[in-house]
Amino acid sequence: MSVIVFKAILVVVLFLVSLGIAAYSTYAERKIAAFLQDRIGPDRAGPFGLLQPIADGVKMFLKEEIIPTLSDKFLFILGPSMFMVTTLMVSAVIPWGLPLDIGGEMFALQVADVNIGILYVLGVVSLGVYGIMIGGWASNNKYALLGAIRASSQMISYELAMGMSVVAILLMTNGSLSLNHIVEAQGTGKLYGFINISGMNWNVFYQPVAFLIFLICAFAEANRTPFDLPESESELIGGFHTEYSSMKLGLYLFGEYINMFISSAIISCLFFGGYNFPGIEYLGTILPHNILSIISVLVLFGKIFFFIFFFMWVRWTIPRFRYDQLMRLGWQVLMPIAIVNVLLTALGITLFGN
Amino acid sequence: MMQLTNRSKVVTKPEMTWVEKLYIPAILGGLQITIKHLFKKKATVKYPEVQKEFAPVYRGMHVLKRDEQGRENCTACGLCAVSCPAEAITMDAAERQKGEEHLYREEKYAAKYEINMLRCIYCGLCEEACPKDAIYLTDRIVPSEYTRGEFVFGKDMLVEKIDDRVDVSKRKKEYSI
């Protein structure tokens, strides 16, 4: 099997998995919301309501497609498509597991091991603002425009702190921007230089502050509570997607859940060792390579699912920020802390070597 | 200042400490509270499968009772209609003919008896007014309809079926004057 064929299959699989996870995130969101509020949640469609996402999807497709008369039709359609495309594009650089051994050849479970991986992630994520901005602008509606303005300023502000917190991680991996290198570095070496657990050398133990900043920024980037101002239903009637209906609205909502999935994947890769898990070296000696690869993929997905759960858990815990509080937190709190964190990390690395 | 009572409290708003200003301990506390609810017993009653029992005083859809021999109790005296604060009840009286003794208990009966279920406020005054043990409010729920007209229930909806009696023993009260 040639590399191209494998990558093509991987792309298709990733696409389907992202969509599937996004679909079932909506189900999980409703279930978790219900459980956290002492309710049961959707349980009518299929056993435990498991067919609910399908029913929702069918409903979305069958709804009437409304394009406002005074909107810019081309941009109106471009907005959600662009949002969806950018969210799906990020998954290209994430290493999903150890390489697979197919017929003696090793195939990396990563669509593209670009050497600027994390830069690519930040770049594409910031492209996602365009999807929201274009959609909100093209709607020709005050609420949509307000939502879009909020979304873009929020995402741009928090990208800075996010980037700064990532710099601290990059310093620790000798400046390599490749996500693959970052993940691999967390699988080797001893924790703090003396605790010998293989595959446990996670960045979160060295950079808890950076992790916290990244996590908060991820919430803001994914437009999740407590930073869901762009689409606050009570104030803006849905924000940038006020005018959207049918599957174009579906694309926005879907894109958001994919965003959440991808952010969880990136958090896991940057701070929680990606596909590494304690005891990976020992298992590598007793299990065939391919099985170990599959376990590593499952471990990564376990971490991702935990973070998706965490996103939902936080949603039902913390109320929404006010807009000025949001901006103050981003610029006056997270940003300086991130910069100081980078300086301290750099100082630590210069003083104590590695 | 002189205090009139000793119930007043002095409200203080202390400066937050540095740790409190971080908000992280507070957020963690909140997360702890929400996660506890994940394992709590759910309050939901899965309605069509599981039904909550009604209280004995529940006032739902009316029934026009028959006696043990299956004869209608109602004599169309009109006390229920008079007592009804929402003026939801109307009726037409008729005289019992020969050969109808097995249908109606008294010489006079209601040829037409209608309750407008949209006007009805389910107060139960008709039941209290009835001298003949004829009308009762039951624990049955009024079925939903699509048009307003369908909510005017006639005798076909209100009179209990001979082979499908409605139990109103919970609502029967003994009055002492």
Query: In one word, what is the shape of chain A?
Result: globular
Beta-strand residue fraction of chain A: under 5%
CATH T-level topology of the domain at 62-158 in chain B: Alpha-Beta Plaits
Helix content of chain B: 10-25%
Number of strands of chain A: 2
Overall geometry of chain B:
elongated
Termini separation of chain A (Å)? 40 Å
Summed up, the helix count of chain B is: 5
Helix-strand string of chain B: HHEHEEHEEH
Under CATH at level 1, the class of the domain at 62-158 in chain B stands as Alpha Beta
Unreliable spans of chain A: none
Main pleated sheet of chain A = 2 strands, antiparallel
What strand line-up does the widest sheet of chain B have? 2-3-5
Tell me the fraction of residues in β-strands of chain B, as a range.
5-15%
Task: Give the overall pLDDT of chain A as a whole number.
Answer: 83
Structural class determined from secondary elements of chain A: mainly alpha
What is the topology?
The complex is a heterodimer of chains A (354) and B (177).
Chain A: H1 3-36, H2 52-62, H3 73-89, E1 100-102, E2 105-107, H4 117-138, H5 142-172, H6 179-187, H7 208-221, H8 233-236, H9 246-271, H10 280-286, H11 289-315, H12 323-352
Antiparallel strand pairs in A: 1-2
Chain B: H1 18-22, H2 24-38, E1 62-64, H3 79-83, E2 89-95, E3 108-116, H4 125-129, E4 135-137, E5 152-153, H5 155-158
Antiparallel strand pairs in B: 1-4, 2-3, 3-5
